[in-house]
Amino acid sequence: MVNATQDTNSAAALFASLNANAGSTAKASTAADTQDRFLKLLVTQMKNQDPLNPMDNAQVTSQMAQLSTVSGIDKLNATLQALSDSMSANQSMQAASMIGHGILVSGNGIDLVNGHAIGGLDVPQNVDKVNISINDQAGTLVRTIHLGTQPVGMGHWQWDGRNDAGATVVDGSYTFTVNAEQAGKNVGVTGLQFGVVSSVSQGKQGVMLSVGQLDGIAMSQVKQIL
After folding, report:
1. Of 157, 154, 150, which Cα lies nearest the Cα of 126?
2. How many domains are there within the chain?
3. Strands 141-146 and 109-112
4. Which residue among 1, 87, 96, 145 is buried most deeply as judged by most CB within 10 Å?
């Protein structure tokens, strides 16, 4: 005859194992499979119990409650997965509508095309002086743009492709730095890089944008759409 205490412990251990592995085996088994295995285990356990020391109602109720919990978790996971898939599809559609549009993301690069370039900045507080220093790929200062006072918030600025001497420079990639002051004290201002969205891709980390020379830009990194 099977010892009731040992059988109960074995059943609990097996069920705990099923419960712990529910997440990793979700693709290979369904909630119905889990219920079927559990019910077979429970019936076998009751058939082999000690007639002189049968399982009490509390044990049966407790194990049935555990089954209900596992079933509820399976249903919740399925619902969350469906919701996640729906949100990903909606986000992809929204991102696709951005193709061909210019955006600003954090960065210090600027592309001069046909003698024209756009950059941006994110100002944390009102400032009375902002200077933009543009350098070529060798690090040589090409142009300094004085923007004057700037309010708090995001804004963009333009460069006409000329250096400080007024001569036109060649098209290409440049970098810039932002220096801001308020009452003679430096204020940290974030530079924003401009680019045109050329493509959208769906990856493990969500929807990613290709923006000019930048690739793998997340939607959350977009500061402004121009």
Report:
1. 150
2. 2
3. unpaired
4. 145
